[in-house]
Amino acid sequence: MRRQALLATSIWFLMMFTATNGFELGFWPWVMSFNQWDTRWYGTIAMSGHGFLPQSFVFPPGHSWILGGLTDLTYYAFRSFDIYVKWMMVFSFYGLVLNTLSFGLSNWILVSLSEKRWGLSSKRMWFIVFSNPMGYFALTAYSDMIFLLLTLCILLFTLHSSPRAQAWKLERFLACISAPAKSFLLTLLLAAAPWFRLTGAAFASLALLRRKEVLGTAVGLGGFLLYYWIRTDDPFFFLKAQRVFQMPEGHFGNGLTYAASVFFQGLKLENGAMLISRDFGFLLYWVDFGLLPLSVLLLSIALITWLARRKEWELVCVLSAVTLISHNQAMWRSTVRYALMIYPLATWMWLEKESFLQKLAQAKPHFKRLPEVLTGLALGIGFALQIFFARVFQSGGWAF
Questions:
Q1: Residue 247 in contact with residue 329, Cβ under 8 Å?
Q2: Please, which residues have CB within 8 angstroms of residue 328's CB and are 6 or more apart in sequence?
Q3: Lower CB count within 10 Å: N or C terminus of the chain?
């Protein structure tokens, strides 16, 4: 499986390098072409810390601290040998390496879980996990891939010690780690999560399963709020700083209303033509703030419902909490990439042997190919969106 993970990650990286003009640009210009949007804020925090600009407080510092430490170590090592390189170039390179490794490891866990729990083909799942539309964030210095890996590690440790561990066939997966060590590591991971993504507080939902390790989330979130209180005299300054990014105040209902209004506005006819058919700028806006946020929300609800019917309460708790927290805002900006894990897991709904579609395919000859057709569509749409938005991102356009 480890060889498959290395091979699949390498092939995906080469594909994205080719599809985003890597050979034409050259390696270093290509790396820097992904130095867009939030990457610069993470770089600012890594270089100067929080407080240099108030907007920086919107971003939790954990990711920047790790990348900043690695960048400083390398940058000053080069300087000691009179080799001068740009600090931000080193930062972007480490972001690329760390996130690509995290994406590969995350996909390895996803493929392993899919194979062990549902008996799905690993070869098919490798294609599915790397077709994730949000996968191109592995090429940036964003924190999304680190948080995805953190989330999957937390779920892995949680499932391993849950009453349903036998169903997931995880007895040998972490066999070399003792039970007390697993509990300690899970607590540590839960404590670290809020420092990388505010949706890390979603892991507090595991308290519904009466897990004592969830105290780690309380400690991590408490430390995070204390840090902000010391730095700004307001533990919730990170919420107020959102106004600088033109994020209106509001809640889930406001966000749903806004996304729905954008979606239906794009379907209206104007002078005999739909808006989305004659204006690329609005088409992109319609997809980013209307179509995709609503689609991801519906997909999340469908997956959570499907998992609940199978009593997979660990996944239900975490996915429900992440969905609610990430959508608790007046404009659903960035919520699509907060659902990184939803896309590959959603394929379980029709690939699992006992699923409705699999039973329908077996009972009705006319529907025999339906699961494969859906998988083909998921792969095609996933890779198309991933490459398209990667190129939009490179050009400085908003992409998720």
A1: yes
A2: 251, 252, 255
A3: N
3-state helix vs strand vs coil in the chain, percent to 5: 75, 0, 25
Cβ pair 323, 304 in contact under 8 A: yes
Phi-psi region of 169 (alpha: psi -120 to 50; beta: other; left: phi over 0): left
CA angle 6, 8, 14 (to 5 degrees): 100
Which stretch of DSSP H or E encloses residue 270? strand 269-270
Write down the pTM of the prediction.
0.91
Cα separation, 271 vs 163, whole angstroms: 60
| CA–CA distance, 288 with 249 (Å, rounded to integer) | 19
**What is the separation, in whole angstroms, between the first and last Cα of the chain?**
31
Residue 107 in tokens: 């996909």
Cα–Cα distance list, 329 to 259, 310, 332, 376 (Å): 11, 30, 7, 34
66 to 42, 46, 135, 146, 176: CA distances (angstroms): 11, 8, 21, 11, 27
User: d(Cα 2, Cα 101) in Å, to the nearest integer?
Assistant: 12
Q: Give residue 366's pLDDT.
A: 74
Backbone angles phi, psi at 39, to 5 degrees: -55, -40
Cα 154 versus chain centre, distance: 14
CA angle, corner 133, sides to 90 and 135, nearest 5?
25
Q: Which of 348, 325, 329 minimizes the C-alpha distance to 338?
A: 325
Per-residue buried b or exposed e for 269-289, using 16+ beta carbons within 10 Å of the residue's own CB: eeeeeebbeeeeebbbbbbbb
299 touches 345 (CB < 8 A): no
Spatial separation of the C-alpha atoms in residues 201 and 322, rounded to whole Å: 8
Max alpha carbon distance in the chain (Å)? 71
Work out the burial of residue 29: count CB atoms within 10 Å of its CB; fewer than 13 is exposed, 13-18 middle, 19 or more buried.
exposed
pLDDT at residue 272 greater than cutoff 70: no
Q: What is the pLDDT averaged over residues 50-69? A: 87
Instruction: Considering only CA atoms, give the Rg of the chain.
Output: 22
pLDDT band at 392 (very low <50, low <70, confident <90, very high): very high
CA distance 32 to 75: 16
Please give the average per-residue pLDDT across 364-387, as a whole number.
86
